[in-house]
Design goal:
The complex is a heterodimer of chains A (319) and B (334).
Chain A: E1 4-17, E2 20-33, E3 37-41, H1 48-55, E4 63-68, E5 71-72, H2 78-84, E6 88-91, H3 105-115, H4 122-135, H5 152-164, E7 170-174, H6 182-199, E8 202-207, H7 210-216, E9 219-224, E10 227-233, H8 234-239, H9 244-252, E11 301-304, E12 307-309, H10 314-318
Parallel strand pairs in A: 3-8, 3-9, 6-7, 7-8
Antiparallel strand pairs in A: 1-2, 1-4, 4-5, 9-10, 10-12, 11-12
Chain B: E1 4-17, E2 20-33, E3 37-41, H1 48-55, E4 64-73, E5 76-77, H2 83-89, E6 94-97, H3 111-123, H4 127-140, H5 157-169, E7 175-179, H6 187-204, E8 207-212, H7 215-221, E9 224-229, E10 232-238, H8 239-244, H9 249-257, H10 296-300, E11 305-307, E12 313-315, H11 318-321
Parallel strand pairs in B: 3-8, 3-9, 6-7, 7-8
Antiparallel strand pairs in B: 1-2, 1-4, 4-5, 9-10, 10-12, 11-12
Classes of the chains: A alpha/beta (319), B alpha/beta (334).
Chain lengths: 319, 334
């Protein structure tokens, strides 16, 4: 039996807004095994980044439980949580704004080691920085450069080195390659994959790019307006999407081939996440929506094995 | 002789900055037939946007400097026009859509008035008539006419991009330049906007230059593709030429870098290294140090154009010595 490293139960995060509560994450549950990657996909405003931040307690959840190695971390004191952050890290989307421009590469990578008083000896710390730079493929000669002198790919490598500086086991990767050119994107994706094998890391991989998530993840969760609408092993989800939103999302990806595939063009746009009614949140854009979809909120049901979907009509539409 | 809307010949543009000279475009040739769409593909700094801006003569001068070359747009030599003439050409003969719909609109002017502005300038219509026409164009891009009175912040990203398309199309230009028009949008909204652009292009028989880093978007919208690298077009051809009979190692590298959604196990083969420093381009082929096929000659001599057909050419030394050479691998299925 493989080991669950992180489990999230009925996670909710509501933000106050002048018009009422904004349901950014609404009753989301999932579990990740050690050494695996859960991809979280969805469009802007679906709550994927908020989910990542709430799990690390960079934002406090409104409700729900987060178990990391069996411990409910929502109950941990700030001091205990700080200790735990040595294992739980995050890599951000924008390598341009997430690094302190006044620090050199070595200072940036070294900072978490100093803050956590991990290595006190200066020389050893320097050795560790060099080791980390080698690990993420940053040339040692860049050690005294500043972020602005480097391109996006290298900056993202610094972000990764920093995230690995402690005893990292679990990383939330929040759109780590979205700001990069494709050739550089492939370099970083391969790096993250190699590091996962080498160090046994567990990832939550948040992205809007479905081709990337398919390539990278073991399991994929699709979010829509704060809700998880479908979750399945990547292979299953991409070959057999059940939720109408997932189907539309997959068909909308522009493919770099000449074989034409039919697209499902969704009408309309995401509705407001502020005080949503307890109905299917996708109903107003769904081509299969019926009365029940506008009356009741669908719950997650098992399609087969690990494949779950929240849609009133999935059985009928599958048949 | 075919009728061309756009002919760019041997265009060289550089930027003279305090740090040195950036050679942004190093001999670009483009010909585009009326009603056709050309995709300009390349990474950050390849010169895609500079190429586009040069067609509108909007490259800031200084620091920009056209070293040599010519641009003929709808029969008009762009380089020789006065600024006054250019103002009449921009928006009327050629329009441009920018990547970021969030910043391209004026936040304090009603959407309808922003569209009407372009119409009244170029068509010399009264305010009422311009507004009426603006309403028509807005409806054409799928936005109800009664939203004319709203401000940009009341629109979502996809809707704003539609407004921008409406402004660009309001005077029925013969050429539309779209600079990453859907990059800032979500995929389902991107699909809507691309669909709309295809529809409108056909309806108005408009030519288009579509700048994109996404080969998927290009495959969907374009007839021809030009792959740019370090200020050069390294390969150009029809979609079929470039996608099925890839010739340049950089083009191959781009295809190999994209995760294949239909084959999740496929390994990504990144292009190693980084694009050469534009302040200091190598004397030979600019792709030399990242290329798996590089030979000695690539280090020292600039490659010249090698044509495979009327439509398809590449600039690479591989084919000078061995015209039958074929690249190793290609992930995309034929």
């Amino acid at each position: 039996m493989s080991k669950i490293i992180l489990e999230v139960k009925n996670l909710k995060k509501y933000f106050d807004s002048p018009k009422g509560k904004l349901h950014a994450v609404d009753d989301v549950s999932f579990a990740i095994e050690k050494g695996k990657t859960l991809g979280v996909v969805g469009e802007s405003g679906c709550g994927k980044s908020t989910t990542g931040r709430v799990i690390l307690r960079l934002l406090e959840a409104t409700d729900g439980e987060i178990f990391y190695k069996g411990v409910n971390i929502r109950k941990l004191s700030a001091a205990k949580m700080r200790e735990l952050r040595r294992e739980m890290q995050i890599i951000f989307q924008d390598p341009f704004s997430s690094l302190d421009p006044r620090n050199t590469v070595s200072e940036i990578i070294e900072e978490p080691i100093i803050l956590n008083k991990l290595i006190k000896n200066k020389k050893q710390r320097f050795e560790r920085v060099l080791e980390l730079m080698d690990l993420v493929g940053l040339s040692r000669r860049l050690i005294n450069t500043y972020p602005h002198e480097l391109d996006g790919g290298r900056r993202q490598r610094i972000g990764i080195a920093r995230a690995l500086a402690l005893n990292t086991e679990f990383i939330v990767c929040d759109e780590p390659v979205s700001a990069l050119d494709v050739s550089i994107q492939a370099q970083i994706l391969n790096l993250l994959k190699n590091l996962q094998h080498k160090l046994g890391l567990t990832y939550i991989f948040i992205t809007h790019d479905l081709s990337v998530v398919n390539h990278f993840s073991d399991d994929v969760a699709v979010m829509y307006l704060g809700k998880m609408v479908e979750k399945a092993p990547a292979e299953e989800l991409f070959s057999h999407p059940v939720h109408p939103y997932t189907q539309a999302l997959l068909s909308a990806i522009p493919r770099p081939t000449l074989d034409k595939h039919e697209k499902i063009i969704l009408k309309g746009e995401i509705t407001s996440p502020i005080e949503p009614e307890p109905i299917c949140r996708f109903a107003n854009r769904c081509r299969y929506a019926e009365d029940i979809c506008r009356r009741e909120e669908p719950q997650l049901e098992t399609v087969e094995g690990e494949h779950e979907v929240a849609c009133h009509r999935w059985r009928e539409l599958e048949g | 002789m075919k009728d061309h809307i756009l002919e760019i010949k041997d265009l060289h543009i550089q930027f003279n900055t305090d740090e040195g000279v950036v050679q942004a475009l190093n001999g670009i040739d483009i010909t585009l037939e009326r009603g056709k769409t050309l995709g300009l593909v390349g990474e950050t700094g390849a010169g895609k946007t500079t190429t586009a801006l040069s067609i509108l003569r909007l490259v800031p001068r200084p620091p920009g400097e056209v070293v040599r070359g010519s641009i003929i747009l709808d029969g008009i030599p762009i380089m020789e026009q006065s600024e006054y003439e250019m103002e009449k050409i921009r928006g009327k003969t050629v329009s441009m859509i920018f990547q970021d719909p969030m910043t391209a609109l004026n936040p304090v002017i009603k959407v309808g008035e922003q569209i009407a502005e372009a119409i009244s300038i170029h068509q010399k219509l009264s305010k009422e008539k311009s507004l009426a026409k603006a309403r028509e164009v807005l409806e054409l891009v799928g936005i109800p006419g009664n939203r004319m009175q709203e401000y940009p912040h009341q629109f979502s990203g996809g809707m704003k991009q539609r407004v921008i398309i409406a402004i660009a199309l309001s005077c029925s230009p013969k050429l539309l330049i779209a600079d990453e028009p859907t990059t800032a949008l979500d995929v389902t909204i991107q699909a809507q906007v691309l669909e709309l652009m295809k529809e409108l292009k056909q309806k108005f028989h408009m030519a288009m230059v579509m700048i994109s880093h996404d080969l998927g978007v290009v495959a969907e919208v374009c007839d021809d593709v030009a792959i740019m690298y370090a200020g050069k077009i390294v390969e150009q051809g029809s979609l079929e030429d470039v996608f099925l009979r890839t010739k340049h190692p950089y083009t191959e590298g781009l295809f190999n870098s994209i995760p294949n959604i239909d084959d999740r196990k496929a390994e990504l083969i990144p292009i190693r290294g980084l694009m050469s420093d534009p302040y200091n381009l190598p004397s030979g082929c600019p792709f030399f140090d990242r290329c798996d096929y590089a030979m000695d000659i690539c280090r020292t001599e600039k490659p010249v154009k090698h044509s495979f057909s009327d439509t398809h050419f590449t600039e690479c030394h591989l084919y000078t010595a061995q015209p039958e050479f074929s690249l190793k691998s290609k992930k995309t299925k034929e």
